[in-house]
Amino acid sequence: MSDFRIRSSAEQVAAHLRECLMKRVWTGRMPGSQKLVAELGVCSNTVESALKLLEQDGLLVNRGRRRSRQIVLPKETSRPTLRITILLYHSSDLYVHYMIELQHRLIEAGHTVIVDPKKSLHGYGMDVTKIARYVKRTETDAWIVTAASHDVLEWFAQQETPAFALFGRRKELPMAGIGTDKHLAFRAILKRLVSLGHQRIVLLIAEHVRKPEPAVFLVKFLEELEEHGIKAGSYNIPDWADDQDSFYQCLDSLFEYTPPTALIIEQPGRFMAAQQYLAQRGILAPQHISLVCQDPDVYFDGFRPSVAHINFDSNPMLRRVLRWAHNVARGKTDTHYSKASVEFIDGETVGPVPR
Q1: What structural domains does the chain harbor?
Q2: 20 to 30 Å CA-CA from 234: which of 51, 78, 326, 340?
Q3: Is the pLDDT of residue 7 over 80?
Q4: Looking at residues 43-67, what average pLDDT do you find?
C-alpha cells in the first residue's frame, strides 16, 4: 500500500493541546481529563491518549492517580522558529501526500513555511544560475530543496543560509539531508520481471539522475541486468531531456523497432502519462507490457489494475526534517545525512511476457 498516514484523533487533540500549552493557556497544572472532554467534545479515551503523548514529549509530568499533571514548558519563553522556504522539484510535488504532511508538521512546530509552486527546479531547468538568482532575492531563514541535482545542492551547500536536501544527489556534500536507497527495491523488481520472462527492460528516469555521471543505484541496476544474463546498455536507460515532449519522443523511439516488454518509470505523473500513451496504441498492462512506478502515490490503492511501485515510509523523513529545523532554529550546525528504507510493492500492472 502507498504510505498515506492520517493522524489519529488522539494525535490531533495532542497537537491542539500542545499549541495551548505553548500559548500558556494553562500554567502549573493541566486541567483534568473530564474538564478537557467537556471543553473539546471528544471521548475520554481520546483525551487520555493525547495527554500521554504530551507526557512522551516532556510537556507534562504524570503525578499519579487522582492528581493533576504538572506542566513543564521549555525554559525559553518562546520557541525559536524559522521562515522556511521549500523549493520543489516540480510544481505538482506540492500535492504529494508527504509534502502536505511536512508543511503541516513544520507549521505545527511554529515555523513559517513558504512554497511557491510557480518556482521549481524543473521550471528552472535545474540551471544553477537561474536558481541562484531566485534564491538570492528570497528572504528566508532556511531552505528545503527537493530532488535536486548535485550541482544545485553543491551551490546550496556553499551558502550561509542553511539548506536541507530532501532526496536528490547530495553525495558527500556538507549539508543535512535524507534520501532513499533504491538499490534493493530495484533488485526485487528485476528479480520479479526476469522470473516472468522479461529481457527487454527499460528504466525511464530524469536527466539529472543520469548526468553528468549516473547515480550509484543506476550503475547497480545495469550490473543486476548483467547478472541476470541481460546485456545492459543505453537501451535500458535511454537518454532524453527532462520535459514532456522529449519524454514522448523517447517512447516513440522505444516502441518503433524493439519495444520493451517492461517499463520502470519515475514519478506517478509520468507513469500515468506513459500508461495513457500506451493505451492509445492498444498497449495495455499487464496484457501487453509490464509497468512499474518508481515512486508511491496515495491514489495507487484505488487503481485497477493495481500499480506495481516502489514505496517508502515517510515518517522517518518527516522526523528528520523537523529535527533539522529544530536544530537550525537554535543555532546548531546540522549536516547529518540519513536514508529511508524502501520496498517494492508488486501489483497487477506486472505480468508474464506476452506470447
Answers
A1: 9-71 (1.10.10.10), 83-180+313-340 (3.40.50.2300), 183-312 (3.40.50.2300)
A2: 340
A3: no
A4: 87
